[in-house]
Queue: 3 jobs
Job 1
Amino acid sequence: MTLGLPATASAQAMTFGAVAFEKYFARLDHEKGAALIQARYRHSMDHHIPLNDIARAEFANGIALLSNTIPNTFWMLYHIYSDPTVLAEIRKELAGVVSMTDGNTRTLDVSKVKTSCPILLSAWKEVLRLHSAAVTVRQVTQDHMLNGEFLLKEGNTVLMPSPVQHHNAAIWGPDHNTFNHRRFANSNTGSRTTQAGFRAFGGGTTLCPGRHFATTEILAFTAIMLLQFDVTPVSGSWNNGLASVADIWESTSRPAEDFEVEIRAIESSASGRDWAFVLSDSDEPIALSAEDIAVDAQ
């Protein structure tokens, strides 16, 4: 029995990307690249992983990192800058985690950004909730009657799109389609009843291992943008109903159309100063999933 046609275009794309990465590593170009890719390459070689497999993994990693990090960063800036109240509240939080050193350097403690800025963190989780397009996949290991109504047969596959969970009015209320920057401000991924309803990074054995890395880089970038720049739409007003789209391989939706903005440096007594980033010795992980909360509770 034929179950389906091969994904020819996808397979060809993977081969194309893998060959390019093989040449990249063979030329030792990674030694001039970021410390992250150098560390991943050394780790793979130490574990005797074939070069072709390393190349394929790096190609897939690039898609995963860029296709989700970039749109999530966009939505963070979009939702914050488009609402003066949200912008003012988060800037006030961030001002409290910046210190002046050496007379001309402002230092941002990224750990404090994650632990002392509850409104910013809440806005981040709300972006994940509102714009996640991920699909969790599970195989049924034994027959199970769900809610006494739906029979899940052993051997079948269950697809659980996160938008269904993230826009469930019974969990999130009647404003589930609206961005609420304070929705998570007083809780960890919502109340106890909403933990399973917030699955932006998946869960269980397929829980995203890079969720804390991605969160750190996005929050750090967002913080420095908010503290240094004003962003306004060239048209004069924000499109608060900006449509979004997502391809099947994307875990985060992206804006359906481009629009121009003007970015201006904030004029202040601190303008022109250098910036430094530090992680304090108490870099606590953020509860981004029910699993994170379970670990914290132990």
Job 2
Amino acid sequence: MTFSARNLFNKRSVPVKRDVSDPFSILQHDMDSMFEDFCGGFDMEPFWSAHEASFAPNVDVTENDREIRISAELPGMNDKDIDVTLNHDSITIKGEKKEEKDDRGKDYYRMERSYGSFCRTIPLHVEIDSGKAAASYKKGVLTVKIPKSPKAIEETKKISVKVE
């Protein structure tokens, strides 16, 4: 049985018995796995895959008895590049990130471009008052506050838990 460096550091991995007749195949597989693990969070579009470059922002959804609050981390984006759409049973947050860096020196020139788009739809399980919904964007964080409808607030019922 052989172990790769990937198996040593990934607790969810299970060691697998491999055919040891071709050590170069094993090395190639281990190197491919290492690069996939390392580059998984980076956009390596021109080098690794044919799919469109994209990113998925972190989104937190919290709820209290009066409203639903959604926070999305969108660093480096302009408010003009963010689109928020609300309907009776879901909210959709879309955006496109464009970044270009131009670095010139005496003996070099470096231009980096990165593009990514995202679309997140979050289902809303309660009746809302869409006319009073508000969104703000500050320091790379989008915050959307969606008040519940008076009917939804009225229907909220606390259930006591009995210890047996």
Job 3
Amino acid sequence: MRILISAFIIIAITQTVAARDGIYRLKAGDTLEIWVEQDPNLRRQVVVAPDGRIAMPLAGHLRAAGQTPESLERALAGRLQKNFTTDVNVTVILVNSAEPEPYATIYVTGEVARPGSFPITTPTTVLQAIALSGGLSEFAAKKRVHVRRSEKGREVLIPFNYRAVETGRDMSDNVRLKDGDVIVVPERGLFE
């Protein structure tokens, strides 16, 4: 069980670092500002349509969803080039994302309905994260739940007594989560 938890923590930390270094991919509902240096009349704001495409004068309709702003710049420049005698310089800026970017990713493992990683966009407590994972299973050790957190290169364990929080007796364990936190819900023992 310890090996499984350790492996899950290593995967969680690796995914968090990869997500931070990731490149933004455009999606339906994103608002973009597009500038064409050679023609100020082509400057406009467009919204990526539900089908993932945008429409641009002289370029027509083209797929934007799934592309980075830089790759969309190249695609637009390629489409517009035939209308200009000099090299076309296109700039695409993400003005407003359709979905708020997660400010943190938390992980829930063990005796819950849906263990896994959860991107969060608002401050979230331990109890809320357990709810995101579908709640505790019937085999969960409600008094031995804990949060594993990395602080200054050291792992810190924060106990969470689900039963005390559930009944409202003690809410002090229901801390706000930070990026990379792992909630571990162990299996209850025979006499728990």
